[in-house]
C-alpha cells in the first residue's frame, strides 16, 4: 500500500498539485470511505476518526478542492 501511495504522491508532484490541496483531497476521501464503512452514520464515523461529529459535519460541508482540474496521467 505504501508503494501505491508513494507512486500517487510522485504523480501529484509532477502534476503540480500543491500540498494543501493534496491534503484536503486526501482527508475528504478518507472521511468519505470511513463514513461509507459506517453506512452514513456520522457518530460512528466520527468516533473511528477520533473527532467530534460536528467537526466531521463541518469537514464534509467544506467545498471540495479543485484537484479534478489538474490532469494526472493514468
UniProtKB/TrEMBL annotation:
<feature type="domain" description="DNA binding HTH">
    <location>
        <begin position="24"/>
        <end position="61"/>
    </location>
</feature>
<dbReference type="InterPro" id="IPR009057">
    <property type="entry name" value="Homeodomain-like_sf"/>
</dbReference>
<dbReference type="InterPro" id="IPR002197">
    <property type="entry name" value="HTH_Fis"/>
</dbReference>
<protein>
    <recommendedName>
        <fullName>DNA binding HTH domain-containing protein</fullName>
    </recommendedName>
</protein>
<dbReference type="Pfam" id="PF02954">
    <property type="entry name" value="HTH_8"/>
</dbReference>
Amino acid at each position: 500500500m505504501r508503494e501505491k501511495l508513494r507512486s500517487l504522491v510522485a504523480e501529484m508532484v509532477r502534476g503540480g498539485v500543491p500540498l494543501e490541496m493534496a491534503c484536503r483531497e486526501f482527508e475528504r476521501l478518507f472521511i468519505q470511505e470511513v463514513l461509507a464503512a459506517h453506512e452514513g452514520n456520522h457518530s460512528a464515523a466520527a468516533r473511528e476518526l477520533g473527532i467530534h461529529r460536528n467537526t466531521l459535519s463541518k469537514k464534509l460541508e467544506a467545498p471540495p478542492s479543485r484537484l479534478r482540474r489538474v490532469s494526472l496521467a493514468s
